[in-house]
Amino acid sequence: MAIQTGDKLPNTELKIMGAKGPEAMTIEQLTAGKKVVLFAVPGAFTPGCSNTHVPGYVVNADVIKAKGVDSIICLSVNDAFVMGAWGKDQNAEALTMLADGNGSFTREIGLTMDASGFQMGERSQRYAMIVDDGVVSYLAVEPAGGVDVSAAEKIIAQL
């Protein structure tokens, strides 16, 4: 069963790219006592993710943070090296590029998708959520194809 509004996020350990390489971060470290926008994409460097989804959050980062959001997290079932490189490519300094390399968090919240038809294996569905102190206060899961309900502009309207 997929995570729902009102549920607490599992305290999974994930990775971010730090100055000395991949660094472990837990969901609790990223969300405790904070208001966070967390959005997920099926894959780094893929067209919809690189051309539409991430750029929307990069361009609107100041607007989102002005609405009381402490951090904006982009999650993908990719490794920290890929997420770090993709963040640089996207000029995403205002975002935390979070690697769910093994897909463990994505499985725990029930938002996986089978992308094996594209030779990508198990990936994350496209979604966005607002998290208050580790609890989901808003969740928008994208129907297959496109970037709409999880776009930055739609999340801004929910803040």
UniProtKB/TrEMBL annotation:
Gene3D superfamilies this protein is in?
Glutaredoxin
Q: Where are the transmembrane segments?
A: none
**SUPFAM superfamilies linked:** Thioredoxin-like
Keywords on record: Antioxidant, Oxidoreductase, Peroxidase, Redox-active center
Could you state a single Gene Ontology molecular function term?
Answer: peroxidase activity
Assigned EC number:
1.11.1.27
Per its UniProt entry, what is the enzyme's top EC class, as one word? oxidoreductase
Among InterPro entries, the record links this protein to: PRX5-like, Redoxin, Thioredoxin-like_sf, Thioredoxin_domain
Indicate whether Oxidoreductase appears among the record's keywords: yes
The residue ranges of the Thioredoxin domain are 3-159
Catalytic reactions of this protein: a hydroperoxide + 2 glutathione = an alcohol + glutathione disulfide + H2O
Function field: Thiol-specific peroxidase that catalyzes the reduction of hydrogen peroxide and organic hydroperoxides to water and alcohols, respectively. Plays a role in cell protection against oxidative stress by detoxifying peroxides.
| Membership in a protein family | Belongs to the peroxiredoxin family. Prx5 subfamily.
Q: What is this protein called?
A: Glutathione-dependent peroxiredoxin
Q: Which organism is it from?
A: Sinobacterium norvegicum
